[in-house]
Amino acid sequence: MAVKSVEEIVAEVKEVVGDRTDDTVIELLEDITDSVGNDKGFTQEDIDNAVSETEKKWREKYIARFSGKKVDEVEEEEEEKEDEYIPSLDDLLKEDKKEED
C-alpha cells in the first residue's frame, strides 16, 4: 500500500464516482480533503522551529545560572494564569441548577 497525497486520493475517488455530482459525492470529497489535508496540522518545519526555540531558551537559562543572571520565568507563568479561567465548584453548581429550572 502506497502513501498517497490528497490530490491522488481525490483523483481516484473521481474515477470511481464518474460524473456524479450529488451531495453524497461532494460530502465524501470534502471529508477526504479535510481529514487528509495537512494545512491544519503541524509540518515538520513547524516542529523543528519550535524545538529549536525551546532549546535556545533552555540553553540561555542554563548559561545564565552560572553568570548570576535571572531569567524572567515569573512573567510567563502570570500571563498563562491570566488567560486561563477555571470555574469554581459554586459556579458549576449554579449553572447546573439554572439548567434544571
Please, could you describe this protein's structure?
This protein has 101 residues and is an all-alpha fold. 71% of the residues lie in helices and 0% in strands. The protein has five helices and no strands. It has helices at 6-17, 23-36, 44-67, 74-83, 89-100. The longest helix is centred in the middle third of the chain and has 24 residues, at 44-67. The protein is flat and about 70 Å long. The model has no long low-confidence stretch (mean pLDDT 80).
Which stretches are poorly predicted, pLDDT < 50 over at least 5 residues? none
How large is the radius of gyration? 25 Å
Number of strands: 0
Main sheet overview: none
What is the molecular shape? Answer: flat
Mean pLDDT: 80
Percent in helix? over 70%
Order of helices and strands: HHHHH
Structural class: mainly alpha
Strand content: under 5%
Structure annotation, total helices: 5
Ends apart, CA distance between termini: 57 Å
Short description:
This protein has helices spanning 6-17, 23-36, 44-67, 74-83, 89-100. By secondary structure, the chain is mainly alpha-helical.
Identify the notable features of this structure and list them briefly.
101 residues; mainly alpha; flat
Write the layout of secondary structure elements.
Layout (H helix, E strand, L loop, with lengths): L5 H12 L5 H14 L7 H24 L6 H10 L5 H12 L1
